[in-house]
Automatic annotation (TrEMBL):
This is Uncharacterized protein. Keywords: Membrane, Transmembrane, Transmembrane helix. The chain crosses the membrane at residues 60-79, 91-110. It comes from the Bacteria.
Length: 112
């Protein structure tokens, strides 16, 4: 039961990380408009402006569901022993930083 609680707790942290990244991304788009300008020939203007293809649906599912799932797996892996609070905080900090960095690279720089 303890491992499930750890997994759910880390999953919630993954959801919070996703929401926080969305707020940071919105701020970045306001400050650096060029980051959010779609390349020539690409669909721009949000999800409602793009045609619903299998690729766009897969991108949306991966973008929304993968971070909480990865955080759940991390929580499950950490809960095997009795980690110190500093170790848990370190894992959370690394996971959130890595999530934000990869989201920035994928969404804003590589336009995946």
């Amino acid at each position: 039961m303890r491992r499930v609680a750890w997994s759910l707790g880390f999953g919630v942290i993954g959801c919070v990380s996703l929401i926080a990244w969305a707020a940071i991304d919105t701020h970045l788009c306001g400050v650096f408009a060029k980051l959010c300008t779609p390349r020539t020939g690409e669909c721009g203007g949000g999800l409602d402006a793009c045609p619903a293809t299998a690729h766009t649906v897969a991108d949306l599912v991966i973008y929304l569901l993968l971070p909480p799932i990865v955080f759940c797996v991390l929580g499950y892996a950490i809960s095997k022993g009795r980690p110190k609070a500093s170790t848990v905080a370190r894992y959370i900090l690394i996971a959130v930083s890595l999530h934000w960095f990869l989201a920035f690279l994928g969404v804003r720089l590589f336009h995946v």
